[in-house]
Design goal:
146 residues, 7 helices, TerB-like, mainly alpha
């Protein structure tokens, strides 16, 4: 892990918690979502973090309200576009990992769009980026299933 990653570790951990919470948003973690979460934890050197391990154990579901609180804490009052896009990319990867979008997941993406820092300036630009990320992830998921 490089020094820049060390400095960002609390943010990365916060992001990881949001993504785990999003996996619970439809009430159950799908096998493909579980795989995505464990891979994300490994890639971000969080697989051995006690708090993340607790959430990955799936012993206690995370309520949607808790996920939304984490989401708003992560983005804060004035989120950067970089933080927003990283969150969007991580959540989209999770949501599309099983090739299906549940109603609760769509509502989460909808709420996320409202928190977009570019909403105040040009929501179309960021929405277009969101669509590009989602389309890319969806194509990847579909090509892996074929």
């Amino acid at each position: 892990m490089d020094s820049k990653q060390n400095l960002n570790q609390p943010r990365i951990k916060q992001l990881m918690k949001i993504v785990i919470g999003a996996a619970w948003i439809d009430g159950v973690i799908q096998p493909s979502e579980r795989e995505y979460l464990h891979r994300m934890a490994e890639e971000n050197a969080l697989a051995n973090d006690p708090e993340i391990q607790k959430y990955l154990s799936e012993l206690k579901p995370i309520k949607p309200a808790e996920c939304y609180v984490w989401l708003e804490e992560y983005l804060g009052e004035n989120p950067t576009e970089e933080d927003y896009l990283k969150l969007l990319e991580s959540l989209s990867g999770l949501i599309y990992s099983d090739g299906e979008v549940q109603t609760q997941e769509a509502l989460l993406l909808d709420k996320l769009q409202l928190l977009d820092p570019a909403n105040k300036e040009s929501s179309n630009k960021t929405f277009d980026k969101l669509l590009q990320v989602i389309q890319k992830l969806y194509r990847k998921a579909v090509s892996q299933k074929v």
